[in-house]
Amino acid sequence: MTSTPTAGRQVSARRRPGARDKRKQVLDAAVQLFLANGFDQTSMDAIAAQAGVSKTTVYAHYSDKLALFRAVVERSGRALAVQMDESRLRGEQDPQVRLAEIVLIVLEATTSPEFQAFLRVMVTESGRHPDLAFAGESAGLVDVIGLIASTLEDEAERHGYELADARMFATVLLRMVASGPQLDSLLFPEFRPEHTLLDSYARWITAIFLRGIQPRTGDAREVAPPAGSYGYPWLPETGGRR
């Protein structure tokens, strides 16, 4: 019987979910093995075996192990981006409240066990594999910085002042937010901050940061970032690389 274009489309549609399932199996297996064994000790053969697929299937989706590692980090970044979109859609009109909500999402993401485990892998092995550190390009942080920057601009407009470089201030805030609880979680693996603690910390650090960048009476209306400030080394806009 002669196949019709419609039948061909139906067959194609039936195949696509299988390909997506295999890709998810590969990513899930890669997460487990990277976290258990580190980057060097995880082979593409082992990932294929763990995923229950052929090595050819793994390479059909990812050109090499670094590309697969980047994909794993990117998947985590997409989950964070979805949360950020949800916070934006809630329609909070007060920029300070909205900013505290963004900060809370970042805190919860960067203190999660999976994020901490991947951070340990990157810290341990980036000396031998510098490109691992640049996997952060895939983590969605550039989008987070943009969202924080636009919220800071809304807050500045609300109070009648200007920011010389909103993205730089956003980067500084992001570094401040993640460093404390993130380091505590790294040094003390049993430390698992509860939502209420992180929520209080998010509102507190947001209020302190906004108070610090607001000009005082008689000061210039434009607030400039400190001389020599820097962001994430792998962000091109702050002197890093792609």
UniProtKB/TrEMBL annotation:
Residues 20-80 form the HTH tetR-type domain. SUPFAM superfamilies: Homeodomain-like (SSF46689). Pfam families: TetR_C_7 (PF14246), TetR_N (PF00440). Residues 1-22 are annotated as: Disordered. InterPro entries: Homeodomain-like_sf, HTH-type_TetR-like_transc_reg, HTH_TetR, TetR_C_Proteobacteria. The keyword Transcription applies. The keyword Transmembrane does not apply. One of its GO terms (molecular function) is transcription cis-regulatory region binding. Keywords: DNA-binding, Transcription, Transcription regulation. Residues 43-62 bind DNA. GO terms for biological process: negative regulation of DNA-templated transcription. This is TetR/AcrR family transcriptional regulator. It comes from Trebonia kvetii.
